[in-house]
Amino acid sequence: MSAPAQDSALERAPVLVRDWLTGFLPGQARWAANSLLDIIAILAVFGLLFAFLTLAERKILGRVQNRPGPNRTGWFGLLQPFADGIKMLTKEDIVPRAADPVLHFLAPVALLAFSILTFAVIPYGRDLVPVDLDAAVLYFFAASSGAELAVFMAGWASHNKYSLLASMRALAQLISYELPLLLSFVPVALATGTLSASGIVAAQSGWKWDLVPRWLVFTPWGAVAFAVFMVSALAESNRSPFDLPEAESELIAGHLTEYSGFKYALFFMAEYFGMCALSGMAVTLFLGGWQAPVAALEFIPSYAWFAAKLLALLLGFIWVRATLPRLRVDQLTRLAWKFLVPVALVNLGTAAFWSLSAPWEGPLQLLRWAVALALAAVPALLLGRGLSGDLGPRTYRYA
Amino acid sequence: MNAVLALIALATVAAAAAAMAGRNLLHCVLMLAVSWAGVAAFFLWAGAEFVAFAQLLIYLGAISMAVLFAVLLTGRSREDLAADRVPARRALYAVLAAAAVGAVLLAAVAATPLAVVPAPVPSVSVRQLGLLLMGPHCAALLAVGVLLTVALIGAVVLAAGERPEKPGPAP
Question: Which residues, including other chains, have CB under 8 Å from residue B101's CB and lie 6 or more apart?
């Protein structure tokens, strides 16, 4: 808002460093060098985030389960990710004799490449948008849809019944949850009138009554869309409680059965990258992107706010994993097709009502909120009640 | 710029050719996906960002999956996926059909007066595209929507089949 926030040294620091590094180069070369720097920065930041996220996950899961978690390598286990990395690198890479060697090699590479591609369009800060596309959100979903092909390649190339079955199961899950993921984004496009990520962030700037940020999650339809988006994001990134594609404890690690060593690590990395990218997209779409929640806190640079929101969502992912048991495959598809998709469709209507009733004033505002809240809550409640009718606690009779 | 176009075209055509010549059906499908990605790259080169990403999302994300499922669900075993060598007769017919289609296309291209002077690249934002689709071309959009809905309902009807007798309470 205020000029000082945009021009503060901390806010401009990344751009200043970049200009200092590449400023002496002429036109085209400078553009290329800047792009290269962007790529290096993204890979370094998210690579380190991935490393310490695995550690944080193990630590937090440990604390939730009343055990200390990794604490032998380095201070508080801080060097554990690097020890794991060395272990993965030095493990033997086994390719089954009957496997399709090219596809077996290509699958983890393709998966990781597609998941890294999605990082390109997320606005990390006021001046930190690697590629500012007009159709950025479409690009994001297009890049993440390539993951399905890679999962299939992994399952098929392993030449293993279990791998193929598991990759089919994973595909059913990914395709089912892609629908609510996309549908929960549609009302955002409807409300902001743009597909550009930085445009969506800009549309969420400012404060209502100088107090409540105009983030989309604080509207009735935005809250529903955010919830649907996060549940679908859990499923799309194969996270618990939707981790059936891997499910090492009962479904023998699914399409990863025949992968070992560094290829396995690449799959692992792609999963965490996908989780980070989807969380980053959720922050951009619903939580105001890099905007500060309170005007008084705008002196903290925008990328710090983005990082804080991203970490909060990631910790939420870990918390969910520590809390919920895994779903059965029929419950999984049932949730997507019978609950999330209808709720997201109704939510589209709610968003349309919300944007049509924007000019209402005075007591009509109360009516607007009441109608929108009813539209947001009632269908979800009714659907939930209706669907859980025959899903109550089962009674088992033992012989 | 033309060198980039030549590279994209070469990769697209080579992938499509590999998809047709391959012996392993699965590899053919994956090469086809590469060639679709090449088409998306061409759209990007031509400055049609929206169409390029839509092409990637629809073809690479959805249609390749449909083709893969079709191939896997119809083949009985892995050996079934190896296509037989095409007999000479059928190859001849294929070449004839391709030549006929090619001749029609070439005649059409040759008969069309093309602007020799390079036209300025129109920059269309997604917003303009959306307004055009929802405004003047709304009828077409609705028709496509109805068509897809019919296809979806048809797929549901086909997949649902007969509903089995409701089983008794689980033992």
Answer: none
